[in-house]
Amino acid sequence: MRIVKLTGETRRLLLNDLLQRSPGHYSQYEVTVREIIEKVKSNGDCALFEYTKKFDQFELNAQNIRVSDQDIRDAYDSMDPELVRVIRESEENIRHFHQKQLRNSWFDTKEDGSILGMKITPIARAGIYVPGGKAAYPSSVLMNAIPAKVAGVRELIMVTPPGADGKINPGTLVAADLAGVDRIYRAGGAQAIAALAFGTESIPRVDKITGPGNIFVALAKKAVYGYVSIDSVAGPSEILVLADDTADPGYVAADLLSQAEHDELASAILITTSERLAQKVSLGVDQMTAQLPRKAIIEESLKRYGYILVAESMEDAIDTVNEIASEHLEILTANPFEVMTRIQNAGAIFMGPYASEPLGDYFAGPNHILPTNGTARFFSPLSVDDFIKKTSIISYSREALEKVHRDIELFAESEGLSAHAGSIRIRFEEEG
């Protein structure tokens, strides 16, 4: 891996480099995505079946689009029981964590008869997108579905592309069953996002779409936002390790590679105050990469978006961490909890030598669907909050309104909205 001294200039160049990975930089695909969406919106199942034949080489129809109970039973039968046990245990951890996020409606009453509050209502129907083919991730099924079901979503719809034989990864089906997905459909790509957003004869329209996908899926989610809600327009995966000379270079190298193997656009960065650690990690990365099956992907990822930055001080390192606002941040320092208090921007923070990033991907419980490409400056991990609506509640007695009606009328008149003022004033006209 390249080793670079951290300066103001190298920081600026790095940030510009990382921004090129954003889905916003792939406008050449937007016309194609819009065409797919409009065709599915207009022609429903007919367009959905046509695109599935074109892109997935599977003859989809109204009879085979929905995954059957028998398909799910077959998935269980085909899987290693030990893996099913692990998925089940992961599901329990994820559910337990997200149950802590539940919130209740609340009301605040005063003696004058005014009542203010917040009514919490789950989204009625949500849709989750799950990649298929080589990118089959049962863990992402759990991370999308469980917060929705904990929130109380009444109907959870899942779409995932079929193979050319119409089959879906067994782990994906088992995870969906354990997480409580209500209906599963064989459909993928931008066409599946359009089906969820607008509905077809087979797939019902949903209120929110979550889940990762390729650039066409990401751009489709961006295009339908406003017709439905979405979680985010996610970019490629990324890891940032903040370490001092107490860190184990082997651990750091292995953790960087855990994200670099995702795809050629993944980013793996080490920021350290130790030149010695930087050299050892660079050597370790090269040695480990040579032994890994996804060597070609890793090498391309590190060539494009892999960096080891050597900072003069921990203060400079932390400032850069906050500017990058990485999806995953590992803190491998002498006192990771103290450093953590100074981190403002990160999707998820992993502290200490035994909290490596894959722990969060698969098992610990916090959600692994995280903000990418610097959006941790203003976005949060997927949570129960993503599947609820908050409605304000306002009730005033005559006594309560009488105390303030002239103030409200004055405020409305100052904005030139006389009818607003009149709506309040008419209730007290008899008083002169």
Q: Give me the count of strands.
A: 14
Binned, the helix content reads 40-55%
User: What's the helix count?
Assistant: 17
Largest sheet composition: 6 strands, parallel
Q: What structural class do helix, strand and pairing data support?
A: alpha/beta
Percentage of residues in strands: 15-25%
Report the end-to-end length measured between terminal Cα atoms. Answer: 80 Å
**Could you tell me the radius of gyration in angstroms?**
25 Å
Morphology call? globular
Mean pLDDT: 94
Q: How do the strands of the widest beta sheet line up side by side?
A: 1-11-10-9-12-13
Low-confidence stretches: none
Structure overview:
Helices cover 45% and strands 16% of the residues. The protein is an alpha/beta fold and 432 residues long. A six-stranded parallel sheet has the order 1-11-10-9-12-13, sandwiched between helices. Strands 6-5-4-7-8 form a five-stranded parallel sheet, sandwiched between helices. A three-stranded antiparallel sheet has the order 2-3-14, with no helix packed on it. Helix 2 (30-43) packs across helix 9. The radius of gyration is 25 Å and the shape is globular.
